[in-house]
Write a sequence for this structure.
């Protein structure tokens, strides 16, 4: 558990977008530099006021004070901050055409795949009961 992280990620374990952001942090950043905090009533008002939205995920930089919401905007904000690691990993590889293709793929998976995922989450009683418990 990290008491002085550089980044705090607010979200829900039931949120596909929160998991998307957590995957990026786990892949690119050392675990001691970030901490996940469930968006519960204790932090909701402050996070929504700082971010200007009720949506999750929200990432807060404890160093700069910046607060950014929406996974796409979070990634664009984070990209220059990603530490150099082996194979020179970046979130948006390439330039020009390749970078545009990557952006199109992200847009597709960001906007269309969750529709299928939401359908499968709520389409049967067992999945709906599980989802309801996680969101309650």
């Amino acid at each position: 558990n990290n008491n002085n992280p550089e980044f705090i990620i607010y979200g829900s374990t039931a949120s596909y977008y929160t998991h998307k952001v957590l995957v990026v942090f786990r892949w690119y950043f050392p675990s001691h530099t970030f901490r996940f905090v469930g968006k519960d009533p204790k932090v909701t008002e402050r996070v929504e006021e700082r971010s200007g939205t009720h949506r999750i995920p929200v990432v807060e930089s404890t160093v700069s004070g910046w607060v950014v919401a929406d996974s796409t905007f979070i990634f664009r904000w984070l990209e220059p901050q990603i530490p150099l690691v082996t194979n020179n990993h970046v979130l948006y590889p390439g330039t020009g055409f390749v970078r545009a293709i990557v952006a199109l793929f992200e847009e597709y998976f960001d906007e269309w795949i969750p529709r299928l995922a939401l359908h499968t989450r709520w389409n049967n009683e067992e999945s709906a009961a599980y989802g309801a418990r996680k969101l309650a």
Remarks:
- The CA atoms of residues 79 and 91 lie 6 Å apart.
